[in-house]
Amino acid sequence: MTMVADTLPPPNPIYRRRRRMDLVVRGLCVGAAIFGVTWLALILFTLFWNGLAGLNAQIFTEMTPPPGSNSGGLLNAIVGSLIMTGNRRRPRRAARPARRHLYGGIWPA
Amino acid sequence: MLGILGGIILSLIAGAWPAMQTFGFEFLWTQRWAPSAQPTPVLGALGPVYGTLVTSFIAMLIAVPVGLGIAIFLTELCPQWLRRPIAIAVELLAGIPSIIYGMWGFFVLGPFLADTFQPFMIGIFEGMPVLGAIFAGPPSYLSLFNASLILAIMVLPFITAVSRDVFATVPPVLKEAAYGIGCTTWEVVRNVVIPYTRVGVIGGVMLALGRALGETMAVTFIIGNSFRISSSIFAPGTTISAAIASEFAESDGVHQSALILLGLLLFVLTFLVLAAARVMLMRLEKKAGK
Q1: Nearest residue in B to A16, CA atom
Q2: Which of A48, B128, B143, B203 could disulfide-link to B132, CB 3.0 to 4.6 Å?
Q3: Predicted complex: ipTM over 0.90
Q4: What pTM was computed for the model?
Q5: How large is the greatest C-alpha to C-alpha distance in chain B, in angstroms?
């Protein structure tokens, strides 16, 4: 659909200007997409890089320890999140992106 | 639903009443925030209100062009097989908890910006009349700009998802007709897609703005919690929600009441911004002759 503008040599100044404008905007759009995806990659990378090292079975089976002790996990925090989310009103089917309602239960601002 | 809303407003007003009586309207344009000043606390909302407006404004300045750009890329330019992965990746940004954004901003983004981007901008704009004051040093890990950038990333998926959905509603006939008379992709977007979907796009932007105004946790982490207003966006500041989050737990008496009044103010602010957007939208529609 858009190939015509790419392949024909621009015959006069107006065409050239329109084509240049088009290329600039397209470049910016691609740049925006890269920009957006980069943030996700950076954040996920940091999370996994630092998070996986601390992951073990204790996290899911033991309570949060008092300050200073070496053992313990995050069981109470995990169960708490589950209980609060479970108690929320079920996402209405009509509310379009229903999964966002679920997110809302787990990590609101 | 309305009952809940009314109840929230009523309890906010009730909680804020002592502060209203103590400070009156001066609360709105006092910058000083001194909960333990003698003989009475001096509290003013100017710093947090300024911070809220500035961070949201900068966030939208970044997020709206980028969000629209991604939406255009996804609907007009992107090869079919790449569309879903990119769309999902951008929407995943909405699924990252705000506390993660806050921690990431604190540990990774803040130091990075303070070491590279901020000195660079400060160097460029040094000595210029207005811009020099906006981009003034020293660089800092915790600043209005860092908070704005995090906010921009957080609201990006709202703008992109909504715009992409409404862009997809443009009848192919219209687009093909435009391409058929030789329009470039940009001209099709500019003259067919955007006019057709303007109301929906603005709706998405408003949704994003609403989130930016009220965002709490991520901003609290990285804005520095300083009530002094500085002309530089690289200086620490605070927002209404960040001030409430960081001080509410250890407040009492008039201080606590003032924080509740801040909350009420945020409510009013959000309402005003959204109302202004509605009015703008109605003007646009009138101009378009609908």
Answers
A1: B184
A2: B128
A3: no
A4: 0.82
A5: 76
